[in-house]
Structures are given as structure tokens and as C-alpha cells.
Records
---
Amino acid sequence: MPLIPDKSNILQLEKTAAELRLSMVNMLQTAGGGHFGGGLSAIDILTVLYFHVLRIDPANPRWAERDRFVLCKGHANCAYSPTLAKRGFFSEDLLKTYGQLDSHFGMHPDMNKIPGCDMSTGSIGHGTPLAVGMALAARVLKKDYRVFVLLGDGSLMEGSTWEAALIAAQYRLENLCVIVDRNRFTCDGPTDGLGDSQDCYGIRGTLSLEPVEDKWRAFGWHALRCDGHDIAQLVQAFQQAAQMKGKPTAIIADTVKGKGLPFLENRGEYHYTHLTDVQYQQALTLLAGQMDALQQSIEAGGDQ
Amino acid sequence: MTRTFTRQDLAGQVPRSVFGMTFVQLAEQNENIVAVSPDLMISTRLAEFVRQYPYRFFETGVTEQATVGIAAGLAACGLTPFVCQYAPFVSMRSCEQVRTDIAYPNLNVKIIGTHAGMSPGAGGATHLSLEDIAILRAVPNLTILAPSDNVQTARAVRLAAAATGPVYVRLVRGSENSLDLYASEEDCPLEIGKAVTLHDGNDATILAAGHPAVQESFQAAELLERDGIHVRVLDMASVKPMDREAVVRAARETGAIITVEDHNILGGLGGAVAEVLAEECPTRMTRIGVPDTFVALGPSRALYDRYRIHAPAIARTVIEFLKKK
């Protein structure tokens, strides 16, 4: 993994994240809707992984030595496919086909259709076992690649995740890193009883998940927590994970569902939605403004 | 080159031991072969493999779902994992992982499902597997093999290893090997997608799959010979893909079809044969197997008898069926 980037690299990553948000918004606007909430909450994590952490070669997507990535929360494909496109695995133009008949891109990623995608996912809770298998394969094949898997809150409710967590600890998979996109919502509402009961039909949300770090630690993992929208904190967290010996690492990244589009933020009902024309124009203006500001900061040498 | 097995080599073995013996040979030949088992390494007869290749075995404890996902992850990185597990649990507890993690990406995972059908006997409904073929037959990309004796078990395991893509091999627990059907692997003509004609005849055809259904069907045909009834017996070990041509030919040439399987008669071999015939050559048929019920507790032999997976009962069924023709 590259060294800790300097301020201008951080700004560049922030700008890339804003570009990815724009790419996702445009793609879903063409498609008529999508998983805005959980896609937007994951974009900063995906940016740091694909533009800083992962050892990959877009010209050679099946490179045997590459780091692997599994999108356990497969419904964030609306953020993932734009990330792969921007990273150079395929042309961004192809994203315009999202959701259409015979497109390579739909709500959930297919490894046999998307260049750079290491595993087909979509059913929640499958990612961690898949990643454990990949991490074990490195041991048999005597390779030094690392394996990353992005979970959502829902993934933490699945028994299969915890089955795999036990196994990963048993095999001391230090080449495995789980990232939890902890946006605190699943389909039926907020986790941890944080809900306004009016927003979720009178129930107090779905399941409580805290204390999340303690759960992973109790399963034998190294666990740390960071702001999942703070690029510098994410970079540091991945740096720590890379240095961990004898244990897999879980990074609990606190995120905001719908991050970047204020009218969607922390609104559980926008798990899957479409933007009105007014909202779409607002999004374009907002993201363009962000990108301009970041570009100016980059040009000013990262001092602003 | 490793010698393949003859019936003498496998005398006295149960099918899962035959799997274990064959698997050690395959592992010796191909270092990419690994195994994963959720606390059933000993029962699925992997112990010798584990002794020889401890770093190519992953004990996953009692975690059915994660075990199948892990196998998919291993395959996605270029290995050829064998998931060794009981048939009822791999086909139901981890059904979605088999379908979504293995079959959908078409990964090179082999599933060895032991203790299939009524072979666990008094294990009862939790441990019997009378639905696995019906469930897994609806999963695209997945080949299903149900070998009928020890020699064919070795052959099926080798075919699974050599195939590209996912294969489910259905094995029974027990030792009720009443008849060796094949002399040696060299003489066992099983191929994926091909039926094997075990007994010739034109009065009716018995299509059977697995152990003990095929052995009992063959013996039923021999019994029927004494009454002057000449019955064709097809070993349908390749349940999927099914040899549609052999099924249609049997229907055209014999005009009466009987299926025999240690499985619910819904959705298994009988269902698959009925689908082919309904589309291509509607023919009167009858299905022997478990008639959509949870079976009684009891020794497997007694259960096979109760549900007519037994040569004299199969012969009687054929005679009665031909009378109605």
C-alpha cells in the first residue's frame, strides 16, 4: 500500500469521490432510480480503496497477484461500477446502459460481466465467507495479495457473516480486511433504535448493532473505527489494517446514508429512490461546486 | 499414472470411503485441489487426505453457509475446492450459497453430498435428504451425478474433478451394497449427460439413479426375465444434464417407463423424466420413490422396502403396470 498521502493527494481523492457521486447520480437518473442511500454512503470508502489502497491493474483485471475486493452490500453497485469505470477498467460510457436489457450493469454486480469485479454479490451476508475463501486461497497459492470486503449494516445482521468471522479469526487471516459502511439504516428503518417512530410506521427501527467494534473484537478480530467520509481517516485506518499481524481487521466506518446530497441524507426512505428533476438539478449544481472548490484547493497547493 | 479402481479394490467399502480413496489420488495429481468441510471431515472420509495434505484442508466448524461461500472464494482465486458435507444440509441450509455463490458465477466447486436419500435410516427427517435433487436441479450451471455403486462412485468423483464448473455428487451413507454393477472404472461407461444401459429389453424401461435404486432395478430386471418379461434398465447417474435422447428412445422402443429413486417422487429423477417425455414423447409412466411424505423412523433397509426400492417390489410394480397398459 502506498505511503500516507500528502494534503494534495487527499484533496485529489476527495475530488475523485465528488466525481464518482456525479457519475452515480447521472447513471441512476438515466436508469430512473436506484439505491441512492447506500451507494452514496459507500463512495468515499470505495474511492480510498480503488484510488489508493488496492494493488490492481485495470489493464489486466484478472491479474493473479491483485488484491481482491468483495462488495458484500451488492446493492451499492450503483457506486461500485462507476468506481471501476473511473479507475479505468472500462469506459464510463458503458454505465449509460445500467439496468437495460442485456446491460453488464444492474443493481448488483456480476463478476462475469463487469471487468475488475472480483465476485458476484447481491444477497446480503455472502461477502465475508467469499472473502475468507479468497484470503485462504492466498495461503495455498503462496501469494501476498490482500482481500477487502465492504459490509453494510444489514450484513452485520446475517448469521453467515459471523460464521465467517469465526473462521477468519481461527485461521489468523491478517490479509483480510472488513469495512463496515455503518450508515445506520436498513430497508425498514434505522438501526439502534435511533428512529423517529413516525418515519418507520411506529416501530423503533430494525436491529441494534452497537457496540459493533466489541462484537468484532469478541470474535478475535482487530477492530478500529473512523469517519467513513474523512478520506485522511480512512487512509490511516487501511494503513493500520495493513500492519496488523496474526488477526483480520474490521474497520467500522461511520457514514451517512445519502451522503453528499443533503435532501437524501439520513433518510431511510431513500434506500431506493429516484430524484425529481429539481433534486437532480440541485445535485448537479452541488457536486459541480464541490469539484470546482476542490480543484481550486489542489491548484493552490493544498493550502486552502 | 495413478491406477483407477476395480471392484476388488473397493470391496467392503461404503461409497463415501470410495470418495475418500479417490480424492487422495486426485489430490496427488492436482495440487490445486483443496477441501472444505463444516465439521464433517471424518464422516465424509477426508481424514487420509487431511493427514497427507493438511494445508489443503479447511475445517470450518459447524458453519454450513460460510463453508459454501468460502469454497466459492477459493475457486474464484483459481483453486478447485471440494465441499464435503451431508446432502440435506448442503442442499438446504446453504442452498442459496450453492446457487448464488457457486452456480451463478459458474465457479469450479465440487460438492460431495453424503448421507443422501433414506440412507441415514433412523436419523429421521432432519438427516434424510429426499429433496436435494429437486432443489438443485432447478439451479443452472450445476451438474448432478448420483452414482449407483462403488466403482461408479470413483468414476463420478473423477468426472467431477475433471469437469469445468460446479458439480454435485450425491452419495449415500450406508453399506447396503447388494450388487456390484461395474467391474472397474475402465469398464464403467459413465459420462456427464449420458445414460448407461445396464440391461436390454423392449417390454418396459426402468430408469433409476443412485445407490441402491439402480442395483435393485437391475436385480428386478433379472427377476422379470424368469417371467419372460424383458426390461431395459438405464443407469441415470447423470441426473443433470439428463440424456434426453436415451429417455425418448426408451419410451419409443418400450412404451412403458418406470422410474426408481431414493428421493421424493416430486422433482427428482421421476419428475425430470416426466418433463422430457411430456414434451417429446408422451408415454405412460410410474414413479417409484418416496410419495411426498416425511418417512417413518427405521433402518434404511426397512425404509427402502417400504417405499419399493427393492428388487421384488420393483418387479411386482412393473408387472402390475404392464397389465394396466
---
Amino acid sequence: MKKLLLLLSLAAVLSGCASGVKLDDVQVDDRSGGASSQMGGSNGLNARNLGAMEGIKQGPVGVDHIIYFDLDSYTVKAEYQNVLEAHARFLRADRNRRVNLEGHTDERGGSEYNLALGQKRSESVRRALSVLGVPEAQMEAVSFGKEKPVAQGSDEAAFAQNRRAALNYQ
Amino acid sequence: MTRHSLRFSLGLLIAGLLALPTWAQFRVEVSGVGLTQVPIAFAPLRGEEASPQKIATIVQADLERSGQFRGITAGAVIDETQRPDMTVMRQKGADALLTGSISRMSDGRYDVRVRLWDTVRGQDLGAISYTVSTGDLRLASHRIADFVYEKLTGDKGVFSTRIAYVTKSGTRFNLWVSDSDGENAQSALASPEPIISPSWSPTGGQLAYVSFESRKPVVYVHDVSTGKRRVVANFRGSNSAPSWSPDGRSLAVTLSREGGSQLFLIDANGGEPRRLTQSAGIDTEPVFSPDGTAIYFVSDRGGAPQIYRMPASGGPANRVTFNGTYNISPALSPDGRWLTYISRVGGAFKLQVMDISSGNVASITDSNRDERPSFAPNSRLIVYATIQDGREALMTTTLDGRIKARLSGQGGDLREPNWGPFSKALP
């Protein structure tokens, strides 16, 4: 089931790119003091979209890339220890690999507060990987809040699939 | 046609109307009794049948949405040069009357003229005229509504102000800038990734927002007239919840660059942010008080999300909300008297209005998925997102909750509204 979900989410990302939808033709002037490594300064928006598409790279094969959380919980459950150890081994083996840890929530509540809650989930995964020896420089914990549900619907089954953190390799 | 079949075709007609929500430009719901509303009659403008926009209809809709007016049909056309029969208007129950005309000029523009009458005193309250292109007829209508509102209430009208909001349609996200009735929307940004938290600069020239187009939340500032934009906060981790200082020079934002979600102040042109809060939990959704001396924000430092207030430079925070265990998304009225926010009550998310001086709180909606309120610049109306008929929709409400109107707008789900400031220049 989880692999199916991963495939679906990958397919969603890829189809989003393949549709070639471009942002409105606007210039971006990046004056941010501390741009993160994946942002290419004043690169055009299209280049950033391409970057996202190139970013769909394999992590460890045969290992779950999505970690689910209980309701109102932001701690990684013990059952994911093996999964995280596999990711940690993979990242430790190649210090050039980068992983984005993306936290998500279910749809209930405000966008910004959910963004902060999703951040708690991704940072919880980051801390767990750090404990397993993954250098901070190889990880970035971010949040999508409630903005990118994988399951539609307003029932507990959908909510449970949306309370998650995804490991996306760069 | 038999009576039965007439009723049947009327039923079909009504069903047809319901199936075409775009026909219904707006819907105003009135609840409660004892409302004091000024009854105002609207005469169709002379020449309006040839106008691409029904000026009097737009003006009437604006004024009714404010909750302070009740529209009456004047019947016959009366233009701004004629002295109306006050007795007839008084018999219709009107205390005021708007008359006028619209004519197309040789250069293709329209000359719109209106005159406002006090029908009780038989007094001319003044006239106003605009010469505008077809594309600005709605704006002229909103300015006329502002003129009437100001003449009859003494307060500034907000009908010619703008609202920013986001639509989601399939997997497409759009940031729109529309008139205050949701019409005349212009796309500022289209993206395959979510856009949230648009926030108007104090002068209305720029919008700050959060876009996920680079697969993480990044804060942008977008010049509305030129379409140029710049990255203001793209630090390691998540960057979100931009809110302008009243002087427009800086933005309060939520950053996770140092772990956790904490508040920072950053120059509106970007640069190195200064940390404002130091809590172990979540601090987010900052908003400045209108005088710029305080920041209201959401924090779970007490175990559950509540609204707090602290000096704008940081420092000790005082809790502001005490009812319930989930209070988020604060917004302050420009006059500094009111705080609106969303409270979870049972499983429902409800719009609240607090009288800041007394601390009294009123829950003013019947809906249960309310989000992201903000005040009109005259502090008399609130725009918020909610679910209506299964779709995400935007509503306006008076502060007492008695008058609500659903804003029209683009297809798809409408969300993340933010009401812009008074505009400076008149066309």
C-alpha cells in the first residue's frame, strides 16, 4: 500500500512537470540573504521547475519513503526504526546525496498553523536521522502543511494517509 | 399554458439558475432583527441599457453587502439633472435616492454621473462624475458606492478597495487580485504548486505571499502593477506567514532556519533576519498592531495554540485568547478596536471577533470550516474563507455577523483571502 502511494505521489510529481505548466512570466530577483543550496539565485522559475523534476532520484531501493504519524503526534513511531536506519546507511554511504524531509498534515485547521505542525514532523525525522549519524548538511526539513494531501476526503482514513513525512532524494 | 406547467417551467428556470452560480453575482444573507439600515432607492441610470456594466446594480450590491443599506427600486429612470419627486420616493420608503446617467463618448470612454438625494429633507447631497474606459466601469461603480457610503454614514467606503485570494482548480493554483466584491479578478501568479498567505503591503502596491514552487515554502514580495517579484525569505527549512510592518519597511515572518517555527523580522528587500521569539514550540502567524508597537501571533508555548501579544521588537508575550484550546490566524482591525481569529469549537473552526478593550468575544458564523479572516480598511467588514455548498468560498461579514455575503470569483475553490488597504489615487 505504501509503495503504491509512493508510486502515485511520484507519478503526480512527474505528471505535474510533464504538463509543462509555467508560472506567469515574472522576473524573480532573489535578495534573500541565505538562499538554500537548491535555489539558484536569480534563476528563472522554469529552471526551478526543471530542478524539481531532475530531483526525483532514487533513495534506497525497497525501503519506504513515507512515514506516517498518529493524530496530533509529531514523533516517529518505533516501527519506522528499520526504515530510518536504511535511509541513514544510504546517506552515510554517499555524502553527496541530499534528502528533503517534507512534513504534511491533514486538512483540519489553518494553513499556517498546519505548516508549523508539518515542520514538527519533518524535523522529528531529521533528528532521528541525525541520531543515526546522517550529517545535517545532507538533510533539509521543510513543510507543506495541509497543502498537498495524497488522499482526498474528509474522513479519518484520508486524514491518516495525509499525516506524513516524505523523504525526497535530490 | 396550464397553471401546473407554468409552475413546472418556473421550477426548471429556478433549477437552471441554481446550476449557474455565475449568474448570481453575490448573495447577501441577513439575519437577526432590529437592524438599522438606510433604505435607499436606486433609479436605473439614463443610458444604462447601452452600458456594458449595470452601474446602479453594482452600487446597490456594494451598499447592501455593507449591511448598512437596504435597496429599493425607484422604478423610473431619473438622471442627475432632474429634481426627483420626493413624495413618491418617501412613499416607497426611501430615505435616500441615487439618480444619474451614463453616456458613451466619441473616444469610446463612458461618462458616468450620479447625484445623491436626501428624500426626507428634499436635499441634494452632491454629485460625482467619472470618465472611464469600459474596463474601469466597475471601478467607477465602486467609487460611486464609496461616495454614497461616505455621504450617508460619515465613514469611508471600502468598495473600491481590492482583495487578494488564491484559487485551487484541479492541480492549478492562482493568486488573484480582485475588486472587493470578488469580481474583476486579475491573476498575479499561476503555479502548479500551492500558494498561501497573501498579505498586502500598507500602501497596496505589493503583495507578500508564500509559494511552494521550489518544493518548499518561500516568501516572495510581488509588485502588483509591474508583476515583478523578489524572494524575501528563502532560508534553510520553511519560510512562511509574511506580515508587513505598518511603515512597509519590514516583514514579520516565520522561519524554521534555526529549528522549530519561530518569528523573525526581515527587511522588505530581504537581508539578514532578526529573531523575535525564543520558544521551544511553535510561534507563527505574526501580525502588527496598527500603530506598529506590538505583534500579535500564535504560539503553542502553553501546550495548545493561543494568540499572544508582544512588543514589536520582541520581548515578553502576554496571552490574549483564553477560550478553548485552539485559537489561530489573528487579524487586527485598522482602528485597533477589534481582533478577529479562528477558534476550534468541538470539531468546528469558527470565526471569532474580540472587542480588545473588554476582551469580550463573539462567534459570528454558522459555518464550521472558517479560515484566515482579515478586516476591510474601514474596520466595518471581515473577509474570510469557509466551505459553502461543499466548495471553498470567500465570505464577507459585518462584525456583528448579521450581514454575510458570498463573494463571486473565479471557478474552483477560493481560499486565503486578504483585504487590501484604501487606495491612494483616484483615476
